[in-house]
Description:
Helix content: 40-55%
Distance between the termini: 61 Å
Mean pLDDT: 93
Number of domains: 2
CATH superfamily of the largest domain: Type I PLP-dependent aspartate aminotransferase-like (Major domain)
Shape: globular
Strand content: 5-15%
Radius of gyration: 21 Å
Order of helices and strands: HHHEHEHEHEHEHEEHHHEHEHEEHEH
CATH topology of the largest domain: Aspartate Aminotransferase, domain 2
Number of strands: 12
Bound molecules: pyridoxal-5'-phosphate
Largest sheet: 7 strands, mixed
CATH class of the largest domain: Alpha Beta
Low-confidence stretches: none
Number of helices: 15
Amino acid sequence: MGSYARIGFALKDSIIFVEIILTMKFATKAIHAGVHPDPSTGAIMTPIYQTSTYVQDGVGNHKGYEYSRTLNPTRHALEKNIAAIENGKHGACFGSGLAAIDCVIKMLNPGDEIISTNDLYGGSYRIFNTIFAKYGLVFHFVDMQNPDAVDALVNENTKLIWVETPTNPMMNIIDIAAMSQIAKKAGALLCVDNTFATPYLQNPLDLGADMVMHSVTKYLGGHSDVVMGALVCNDDNLASEMYRIQNSSGAVTAPMDSFLVLRGIKTLHLRMQRHCENGEKIAKFLLTHPKVDKVYWPGFETHPNHEVAKKQMRGFGGMISFTLKGNQLQDALDLVKKVSIFALAESLGGVESLIGHPATMTHASIPKEVRELSGVVDSLIRLSVGIEDVDDLINDLDNALQ
Length: 402
Ligand SMILES: *Cc1c(COP(=O)(O)O)cnc(C)c1O
């Protein structure tokens, strides 16, 4: 029901949209793109259209909305807003980041092959390997810092290259433009999970990607109060497929959550500036600390992919991983318990600082041998640096490291 109307509606909208993308700068788009005062009341904030259906004047005579799985006005405003800040024409929002990934993989057919990075977000690895592999899709996991290694896996069945950069939790940087060349040569789609960088720091579509995926749960929402996913693309046919699957599988997001994220994105640029500033100071503090062994943060000139990061990102973000001297599991477990401002929790990208232990938390679903190959060792600790006062954050870490 309704999916064709949704596509037509979205495509008509996209014409106005390209103008917005071309004329507005990031901060203006974050606040204004996709939203306009409510025509019936003048309310400046997009109302929470908490409705499942829409009354029609006559059969087929509606205002663009028929049923809220297909399209809901609050979600629609958010979809346009996220598309605009990613410099894309079409956006779709889902019930979680994984539901957005689910949509992309459902564009493929049995026998198709997917090349993905080997230090992938644990949940992405799990949906690929434990849900989709049994439907005959073939997944390859490779160190994508080396484009030749990706090229070597390409064959006529390669239909999708799945990139996550910076990677989680090792903060490796993958060259999106180089991946785009490989994908184009192979006739495959390139999809980039842009959750860690956010559209404020990196726009994969501008670097040649076909699709961008977000766990909106993280920086876009930004306040640790919503679970949501999003996809953005430019190609009209790809968008039709995306909306068809969104409507057919039905993993859509709710009006209230859409409202919260619209509100969150209005300060994305301000939050990201502070995440970047705090991240840099904390990365530098950790680097000189006698208890700390390695610090993984793409802003360091010594980071193996610093040059690629400088080329494709406008800043280095607030995600940092580090290991402890001696690499003892217990030392890491003690540290994450001793901090008092940093909260021990999964997730990232909120205003508050979080600390996590990938080997037992986010990456527990990846076998030990597999995760250690990519650097997720027992003493690895991951920080999502928030926007609190950085001196307090540094003191907190310093005390916990004693
Ligand atoms: C959290 C996360 C996901 C999954 O998103 P959910 O909203 O939790 O479903 C995917 N990729 C990355 C990089 C993430 O951090």
